[in-house]
Amino acid sequence: MTFRDEFKLLLRARYPLIYIPTYEEERVEASIREEAAQLGNRPIYTWDFVDGIQGNPNDAGFGKRNPLQALEFVEKLPATASAVFILRDYHRFLDDVAIARKLRNLARLLKSQPKNIVVLSPRVAIPDDLTEVLTVVEFPLPSGGEIKTEVERLLQATNNSLSSKTLDDLVRSCQGLSMERIRRVLAKAIATHGELQPEDVDLILEEKRQTIRQTQILDFIPATEQISDIGGLDCLKDWLIRRGGSFTERARQYGLPHPRGLLLVGIQGTGKSLTAKAIAHYWHLPLLRLDVGRLFAGLVGESESRTRQMIQVAEALAPCILWIDEIDKAFSGLGSKGDAGTTSRVFGTFITWLAEKSSPVFVVATANDIQSLPPEMLRKGRFDEIFFVGLPSQDERKAIFDVHLTRLRPHNLKSYDIERLAYETPDFSGAEIEQTLIEAMHIGFSQNRDFTTDDILEAASQIIPLARTAQEQIQKLQEWAASGRARLASKQSTPVDVWRQAN
Ligand SMILES: Nc1ncnc2c1ncn2[C@@H]1O[C@H](COP(=O)(O)OP(=O)(O)OP(=O)(O)O)[C@@H](O)[C@H]1O
């Protein structure tokens, strides 16, 4: 349902108190005005702390610097008069006893009157006693269509024309920004060279990077890794390759749904993050990484707003990949933590979105510890597939050595005994193989020569793989994987192999 549809429905159904979290005051007010006009020209009153009530010359300025009086104004109007009251920044006053009480009284009164109060605020900050009476409605960032109209308006105003491909590129690069920012960055582009040009896409992308960085929870990650950079994990790679064209228009016409996401579970250093990046590169989609730690940092109540904001930005940038690293850390111990209220509300928002989302945001979540993941996360319908990423088998280690040595010494690959290296490094993860190679390079470099197979073996002898120090964690993971609750990322490890390793 679009914002307009939902808002219209709430007005018709006489929802008295509506709360819209958005930074885009002007845009949301324009939408509200249009909807109110369609609903029998319902009058609009706005209130803010500085100017008081606006909308009717007789009452202009009423309730200035007095948020309680602003609510009393609602009662001043005849019971049969219809109206929409927009209260700007009103979240700041919701903690006040008198205001909370007044709002709850109004919630009762307005059920039988054609009036609605709309609270506008940049974030969701609702005290507990008002959660039942306030209905939160999300106001999405501008859609591709809205952005296109704005760009075309600007082009007309500046007597400028663009090819339809450049126009589409410009519009796509603006997705994820608020209208205010879009106008600003386009004005900057026009001020720079008098008109909009294809090169402005870079300027806009930079603005977008900055905005996304300002959310402090999402990061744009450049993804240059390819599927061929992943050694082993053949089942996972086959799964992806089969879905190669699934974000194309052709796939939509064929009737295919968008792939929803993957949960990758396994011990550290086995290539889960590498896979997230390779997926983004393979599908040519932007990669957004969610910093789960920062989602929960800060003031109480902010985590929920940030979660909504994260979802909004990801949806506005769709199609894209949303990579949630270490999702187990975010939601571990739900119900037992001190801040369990916040954690479970954030989890609730996230899991509902995951199950219901229709936008092409492909979620790649990675986790090390299956025990601490809430069971709801593993239920069908959340992710397309859950893959267990285990320690590489000997053949996979060969493939990983091959990937890294091809990158490091493309012309000298034959001089390395990859077969032996794979044989001599049991229990090594991909990350540990990479670390071994770096160590071997240090040995060679310090002696002014190239590094050899023997240097790699010496380096390997000095590394104690995590698999040996964290046996218990690995045992648990392997038992879980062997129980058939996840698909195995590697071809070599059949469920029986995993079971044998576990026992
Ligand atoms: N299967 C693999 N093929 C090639 N390189 C690998 C593989 N697995 C790991 N590596 C190397 O190890 C590095 C670290 O791996 P990565 O960060 O993907 O592991 P991870 O499973 O995400 O670990 P963590 O759980 O600690 O985040 C990669 O950048 C890559 O260079």
Bound ligands, named by name, code or SMILES: adenosine-5'-triphosphate
Q: List unreliable stretches of 5+ residues.
A: none
Number of domains: 4
Gyration radius (Cα, Å) is 28 Å
Count of helix runs: 23
* CATH topology label of the largest domain: Rossmann fold
| Average pLDDT number | 89
CATH classification class of the largest domain = Alpha Beta
The major beta sheet can be summarized as:
7 strands, mixed
Instruction: Categorize the overall geometry.
Output: elongated
Number of strands: 13
| Biggest sheet: strand arrangement | 7-9-10-11-8-12-13
Quick one: CATH superfamily of the largest domain?
A: P-loop containing nucleotide triphosphate hydrolases
Assigned CATH architecture of the largest domain = 3-Layer(aba) Sandwich
Percent in helix: 40-55%
Kindly name the structural category. alpha/beta
Euclidean distance between termini CA atoms: 51 Å
Beta-strand fraction estimate: 5-15%
